[in-house]
C-alpha cells in the first residue's frame, strides 16, 4: 500500500518572519504547504488549490482575512479555516466565528498549538464520516441535512453549511429533544477543555439559526433554554 497523501495547508500571511517559521514548521510536521502573501491571492488559491485547511491571517494586504473567509463561505466553500490575529480582541474572534471560521488563534502562538487545533478540526470532520451511531439524515421544516455526503437543502435549494455547523446538527440529531449545555458543545463539538468562552457556542447558534429557521428571531427548531443551553425540535 502507498503512503497516505500529505494534507495540504494553505497559509495566507504577509509577515516574512512568521511565513518562514510556519512554512518550515508545517513542512516538518509532514504537511504540504501552499503560501499566499495577500488576501486576493489567498482567495484565488483557496478556490483552485484544493487545500485541506486554510490558515488565514486577519490583517492582510489587498483583502482582509475576514473578507476572504466571508467570500469563501458565501460561495459554499466549506474548507476548514483557522484565523490568525495579533490583536486578540473579542470582536475579532466573534466576527471570525460569525462568518464561518472554524477556529481562531491569537499571535504569538506555538507550532504545537496550531497543529493541535488543525488536527482537532480534522478529527471533528472525520466524525461525520466515521461515527458509528450518527444519524445519516435530519429532516425538519423545509430543511434536509445529509450527513453522509455533507450536503444540505432548504426549500429544495442547496444550503451552505460549514463543517462546524454540520457537527452541531449531528450532535443535535443524536440528542433530539434533550437540553445540551454550552459546555457539552465545547467539549464534544469543539473538543475544548477547561474555561473556554461560551460566546463561541452562542455565535455559532445565532449564525446557524439564520440559515435554517424561517424566522431566526422566533426559532421553531433551535431553541434556547434559559441558563441551561440549547435543544433541537423537529
TrEMBL record:
Keyword list, A-Z: DNA-binding, Phosphoprotein, Transcription, Transcription regulation, Two-component regulatory system
Modified residues (4-aspartylphosphate): 57
DNA-binding region: 135-234
Stretches assigned to the Response regulatory domain: 8-122
Domain of life (superkingdom): Bacteria
Keyword Phosphoprotein belongs to the record: yes
Biological process according to GO: regulation of DNA-templated transcription
A Pfam family recorded for this sequence: Trans_reg_C
GO cellular component, one term: protein-DNA complex
Keyword Phosphoprotein among UniProt keywords: yes
OmpR/PhoB-type domain span: 135-234
SUPFAM superfamilies: C-terminal effector domain of the bipartite response regulators (SSF46894), CheY-like (SSF52172)
One annotated GO molecular function: phosphorelay response regulator activity
PANTHER family in the cross-refs: REGULATOR OF RPOS, TWO-COMPONENT RESPONSE REGULATOR ORR33
Name recorded for this polypeptide: Response regulator transcription factor
Organism: Sulfidibacter corallicola
Amino acid at each position: 500500500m502507498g503512503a497516505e497523501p500529505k494534507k495540504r495547508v494553505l497559509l495566507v500571511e504577509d509577515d516574512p518572519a512568521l511565513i518562514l517559521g510556519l512554512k518550515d514548521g508545517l513542512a516538518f510536521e509532514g504537511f504540504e504547504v501552499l503560501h499566499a502573501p495577500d488576501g486576493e491571492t489567498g482567495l484565488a488559491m483557496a478556490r483552485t488549490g484544493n487545500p485541506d485547511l486554510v490558515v488565514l491571517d486577519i490583517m492582510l494586504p489587498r483583502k482582509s482575512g475576514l473578507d476572504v473567509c466571508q467570500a469563501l463561505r458565501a460561495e459554499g466553500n466549506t474548507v476548514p479555516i483557522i484565523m490568525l490575529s495579533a490583536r486578540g480582541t473579542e470582536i475579532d474572534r466573534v466576527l471570525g466565528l460569525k462568518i464561518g471560521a472554524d477556529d481562531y488563534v491569537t499571535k504569538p502562538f506555538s507550532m504545537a498549538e496550531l497543529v493541535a487545533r488543525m488536527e482537532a478540526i480534522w478529527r471533528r470532520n472525520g466524525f461525520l464520516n466515521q461515527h458509528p451511531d450518527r444519524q445519516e439524515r435530519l429532516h425538519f421544516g423545509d430543511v434536509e441535512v445529509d450527513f453522509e455526503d455533507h450536503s444540505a437543502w432548504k426549500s429544495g435549494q442547496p444550503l451552505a453549511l460549514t463543517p462546524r455547523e454540520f457537527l452541531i446538527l449531528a450532535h443535535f440529531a443524536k440528542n433530539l429533544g434533550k437540553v445540551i449545555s454550552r459546555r457539552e458543545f465545547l467539549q464534544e463539538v469543539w473538543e475544548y477543555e477547561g474555561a473556554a468562552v461560551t460566546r463561541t457556542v452562542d455565535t455559532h447558534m445565532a449564525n446557524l439559526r439564520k440559515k435554517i429557521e424561517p424566522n431566526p428571531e422566533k426559532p421553531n427548531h433551535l431553541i434556547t433554554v434559559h441558563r441551561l443551553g440549547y435543544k433541537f425540535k423537529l
